[in-house]
């Protein structure tokens, strides 16, 4: 895993996009809370499954985008996922094990 000092910075374009996503998630979350508190359905005909998936998306995308927007670097666990999905690195490891 790469330490936080060694992580590469994210481009300013990606940070702006992350801020846009954070603002959109905040607006949707606030609207959702207002609808729940006021007791009105808001004209939404979405079922429970779609609402649950939306809430899950808000809980995952919101904090991830906030981390990227504020710090300008990917989260610490991001590099371990990136390393595990690196096909070239995985192939090299496989070939090293095979040649032993």
Question: Which helices and strands appear, and what pairs or packs with what?
Answer:
Elements: H1 12-38, H2 48-71, H3 76-84, H4 87-99
Helix pairs in contact: 1-2
Percent in strands: under 5%
Largest sheet: none
Look at the structure and give the mean pLDDT.
Answer: 76
- The coarse silhouette is elongated
- Secondary structure class reads mainly alpha
- The helix content, as a percent range, equals over 70%
Helix and strand run? HHHH
Q: Specify Rg, calculated over alpha carbons.
A: 20 Å
Number of strands: 0
Low-confidence stretches: none
How far do the termini sit from each other?
A: 25 Å
What is the helix tally?
Answer: 4
At a glance:
Helix content is 73%, strand content 0%.
Question: Could you name the key traits of this structure?
Answer:
mainly alpha; 100 residues
Overall description:
The chain has four helices and no strands. The mean pLDDT is about 75. It is elongated. Helix 1 packs across helix 2. The chain has about 100 residues and is an all-alpha fold.
């Amino acid at each position: 895993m790469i330490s936080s000092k060694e992580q590469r910075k994210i481009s300013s374009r990606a940070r702006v996009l992350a801020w846009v996503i954070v603002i959109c998630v905040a607006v949707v979350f606030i609207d959702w809370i207002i609808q729940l508190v006021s007791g009105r359905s808001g004209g939404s005909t979405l079922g429970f499954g779609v609402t649950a998936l939306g809430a899950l998306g808000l809980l995952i995308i919101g904090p991830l985008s906030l981390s990227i927007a504020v710090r300008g670097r990917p989260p610490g666990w991001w590099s371990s996922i990136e390393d595990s999905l690196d096909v070239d690195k995985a192939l090299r490891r496989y070939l090293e094990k095979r040649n032993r």
